[in-house]
Write a structure and sequence with these properties.
CATH architecture of the largest domain: 3-Layer(aba) Sandwich
CATH superfamily of the largest domain: HAD superfamily/HAD-like
Oligomer: single chain
Keywords: Hydrolase, Magnesium
Number of domains: 2
GO molecular function: hydrolase activity
Number of strands: 8
Protein name: Haloacid dehalogenase
CATH class of the largest domain: Alpha Beta
GO biological process, one term: small molecule metabolic process
InterPro entries: HAD-like_hydrolase (IPR051400), HAD-like_sf (IPR036412), HAD-SF_hydro_IA (IPR006439), HAD_sf (IPR023214)
CATH topology of the largest domain: Rossmann fold
Length: 228
């Protein structure tokens, strides 16, 4: 695989880093601060997140819109959702993130051999804060904030924009991410070679439908040897 590779692009959230504040705990506290019983789960928010990316100018706007709709679906008014979103924002610290196993070493090692890019579904100010916090802000030749600068993953546009900046052909480029739907499917649609590092580890079964990743890894510590 290694002889043809010229560029490697990464996802950010739950691929390179993860929050040290559990979303479930923050949402529980947000409901408490807003004075309402729990109306929806953090999973419901994550499942709907991408639907609001392109119409939002930042994470707080996105969260307010999504929480308002989730509150309405639970039988409450939009303002209840706004109150929960405001409380959530007051608790969430975007710099409370930690590197996942093998991430820093993999980025450092591969950056010596290949052009590196980052393609992430997320607001620029939020994702930059995470990159600064984990010490990888200067590690990538290009960063694409999909859903803001381009259409959101899995649309091929953000992958194409990153490859253009890296002056790389898709067939000679690898994309590494944790989400099968956004990362593996999106990279495949753009003609890239997907490497899947599922959040729950490589024991997770590859879905029966959809494109197959070239590799399924337990952690990023396995990535450099696989690509060489």
């Amino acid at each position: 695989m290694s002889d043809a590779i010229t560029a490697i692009c990464f996802d950010l959230d739950d691929t390179l880093c993860t929050y040290t504040q559990r979303g479930e705990d923050i949402l529980e506290s947000a409901f408490d601060r807003a004075g309402v019983e729990p109306l929806f789960s953090i999973g419901a928010f994550h499942n709907r997140y991408v639907d609001y990316l392109e119409e939002s100018d930042g994470i707080e706007t996105l969260r307010r819109a999504c929480f308002a709709d989730l509150a309405v679906e639970a039988g409450h008014d939009p303002e209840t959702g706004h109150a929960v979103a405001n409380a959530f924002a007051s608790i969430r610290d975007q710099t409370s993130v930690g590197l996942l196993p093998g991430a820093s070493a993999a980025v450092s090692a591969l950056g010596e051999e290949y052009g590196l890019g980052l393609i992430t579904n997320g607001a620029p100010e939020m994702q930059r804060a995470k990159l600064e916090a984990i010490g990888l802000a200067e590690s990538f030749e290009t960063v694409v904030y999909a859903g803001h600068e381009t259409r959101a993953k899995p649309d091929p546009e953000p992958f194409e924009v990153a490859l253009e900046a890296l002056e790389a052909d898709p067939e000679h480029s690898v994309y590494v991410g944790n989400s099968f739907e956004s990362d593996v499917a999106g990279a495949h649609a753009a003609g890239m070679r997907p490497v899947w590092v599922p959040t729950s580890g490589a024991a997770e079964t590859v879905p029966e439908s959809g494109p197959n990743p070239e590799h399924v890894l337990e952690s990023l510590a396995e990535l450099p040897p696989v690509l060489r």
